[in-house]
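can u do me a favor
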């Protein structure tokens, strides 16, 4: 069986035009992965291929939105926000990285990895909900003032702790893999005894840079020392965000522990979240997810 014919049936939602578009998007990614391995011509071929991927993906989003409206899908507004995140934030941020690196193989693989992860998570979690195969996972679409307050608090915290500026990549992050990451789950108890979960995922390059800076010595391995420091940084991030949002007095940290990337992904497949943000710091990606 050729690669063009290979298809995992779990990605089917039962709407022919949408399933066809999804197969096409995965096919484009596979071709770009193959092109990227050509060190001589690969970068320039990938540059054209990435433009085509973006164009086709945006066209597909529009078609899918028209279909959702035609069936009166109740989750349309949130789903459109997810598409808009990819259209106007994620893809431009990734394209900026590609341009600045002159389409290096590393940046191409980073682009493809995030797009592949996004497609997989989006189809399984969001698109299958259109057809009623699963329940829509978003509790509420927190756009507007509440989201701006949280985004500003996180940006300020990253500047304070990492001395880095941030760029919002997604306001509806769905757990897709954005590279080798350290994931920490923090469990808080509120003053009225409710439990709140905070998930923080830091790309390893960001953790290593931060701990190296603390020690004033280069580190290139995620050993126990770096992991311990990274977990403490995660706790401080959540604490500072609480201070910025004037909520810290309401929460008491109950426990903290590491998660594998697979466990993190499964948490998204199984759960529903109130806030889920993805940032680019220029030195690595950072996700902040809250389940109240």
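np, heres the sequence
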């Amino acid at each position: 069986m050729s690669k063009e014919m290979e298809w995992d049936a779990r990605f089917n939602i039962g709407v022919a035009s949408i399933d066809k578009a999804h197969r096409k998007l995965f096919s484009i990614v596979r071709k770009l992965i193959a092109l990227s391995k050509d060190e001589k011509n690969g970068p320039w071929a990938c540059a054209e291929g990435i433009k085509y991927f973006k164009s086709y993906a945006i066209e597909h989003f529009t078609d899918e939105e028209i279909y959702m409206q035609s069936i009166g899908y109740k989750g349309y507004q949130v789903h459109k926000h997810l598409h808009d995140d990819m259209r106007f934030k994620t893809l431009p941020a990734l394209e900026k990285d590609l341009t600045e690196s002159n389409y290096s193989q590393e940046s191409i693989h980073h682009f493809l990895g995030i797009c592949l992860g996004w497609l997989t998570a989006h189809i399984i979690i969001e698109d299958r909900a259109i057809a009623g195969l699963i329940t829509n996972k978003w509790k509420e679409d927190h756009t507007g003032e509440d989201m701006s307050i949280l985004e500003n608090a996180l940006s300020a915290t990253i500047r304070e702790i990492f001395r880095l500026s941030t760029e919002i990549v997604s306001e509806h992050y769905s757990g897709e893999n954005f590279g080798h990451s350290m994931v920490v789950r923090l469990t808080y108890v509120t003053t009225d005894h409710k439990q709140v979960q905070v998930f923080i995922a830091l790309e390893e390059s960001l953790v290593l840079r931060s701990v190296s800076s603390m020690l004033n010595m280069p580190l290139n391995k995620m050993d126990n020392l770096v992991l311990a420091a990274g977990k403490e940084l995660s706790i401080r991030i959540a604490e500072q965000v609480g201070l910025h949002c004037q909520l810290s007095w309401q929460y008491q940290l109950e426990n903290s522990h590491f998660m594998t990337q697979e466990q993190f992904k499964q948490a998204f497949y199984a759960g529903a979240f109130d806030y889920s943000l993805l940032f680019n710091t220029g030195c690595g990606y950072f996700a902040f997810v809250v389940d109240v």
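The two ends are 47 Å apart (CA to CA). hope that helps!!
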